[in-house]
Amino acid sequence: MFSIKELFKIGLGPSSSHTFGPVKACEYMKSNYNADYYDVTLYGSLALTGKGHLTDVSIKNVLKNCKVTFDFKTKCEHPNTMCIKAYSDYKEIASHIFVSIGGGQIEMDGKKNEEKPHIYPHSTMDDIQRYCREHHLRLNEYVNQFEKEDFDLYMDSIFEAMIQSVKEGLTKTGKLPGDLKLDRLANALYQSALSAEDSIDRNALLLASYAYATSEQNASGNVVVTAPTMGSCGVIPSILYHFYQDQHYQKKTLIEGLKVAGLIGLLIQENATISGAKAGCQAEIGAACSMAAAMIGYCQTQTNEQIECAAEIGLEHHLGLTCDPVGGYVMIPCIERNAVAAQRSVDAARLAKYLRNVRRNRVSFDMVVKTMNLTGNKLPIELKESSLGGLAIVVK
């Protein structure tokens, strides 16, 4: 598996697969070819929801002099496929096929990112757990053993970016961009939380407001962190912010927990996918909930087995979740879904803490990741980030 640095990335929203990834592809073309014109063709989900995801706008911001074509008919192996051709003096000088595989990561011409080193010797939770038992390691220590020396500094920057996305989002009011004309709700939710008399309501509303804050920042094209994607970027930051500002956890503890969350995300990407266009929202929100539950488990000093159980619960109960963005925007149901998943990650960690004390889980984390991948393959294209089904055709 690659470094967690490949999973957590800071960038502009609203979509890691539909804007962040294509932007990286365009930057590659721009830096490698002395071209004066580009022809970009988007296929599959990139074409179907490209307008709402600002894919064409992001591409033109990088390449400037270019034509963007939405091809709705050509079938590709991966739904997030694009072709970029570079021209100089009206002659084609380069042509590459890019695939945006999720989380802002891209592959070119069928190559599986072979230039990026695999730093982890294991690719399943079962193998990692076995190694940790043999060497008496917690999951964060396992991560620290294989990441490079600059990793802590990088994770500190990720932590700060997540905290900042919540802070900025809480201060914003008005409407989100786009045709849906949705109001920003993070600030209103936060004010409601402050006036809540019941402590349970207060904490739940605080958590929701933080998830809304980051998700609204993303929907507005502002800076967020892929966690593991931009469509699910509100879940982990909401937990971090709540634990840091309201529950007064130490920053060091939270960053170590963030490493554990990253490990869970890597395992999901390695053995399934984190792309909504590939497997529905179970691959994005489900993955984020799983990662956040594992992070909470670590921060609450749960055992490795309890942490695995928390991650498994977080993902299992999002199986089959569809990706059906209304109008192609990362807004409905995406923003509210981030808030719900944040709540569920807390529940998953709590449940795992006590369940794992009384019995061994029948369903392992590896099993549920495999199941998510199989389920994603069975979902019709209408329910995988195409805006051709589900809420996208019911909500007007």
From TrEMBL:
Top enzyme class: lyase
PANTHER family per UniProt: L-SERINE DEHYDRATASE, L-SERINE DEHYDRATASE 1
GO MF terms held by the record: 4 iron, 4 sulfur cluster binding; L-serine ammonia-lyase activity; metal ion binding
Native species: Floccifex porci
Known EC number: 4.3.1.17
UniProt similarity note: Belongs to the iron-sulfur dependent L-serine dehydratase family.
Domain named Serine dehydratase-like alpha subunit: residues: 147-392
Presence of keyword Signal: no
Cofactor (UniProt): [4Fe-4S] cluster
One Pfam family hit: SDH_beta
Organism superkingdom: Bacteria
GO process terms (BP): gluconeogenesis
The reaction(s) this protein catalyses: L-serine = pyruvate + NH4(+)
Protein known as: L-serine ammonia-lyase
UniProtKB keywords: 4Fe-4S, Gluconeogenesis, Iron, Iron-sulfur, Lyase, Metal-binding
Residue intervals of the Serine dehydratase beta chain domain: 3-59
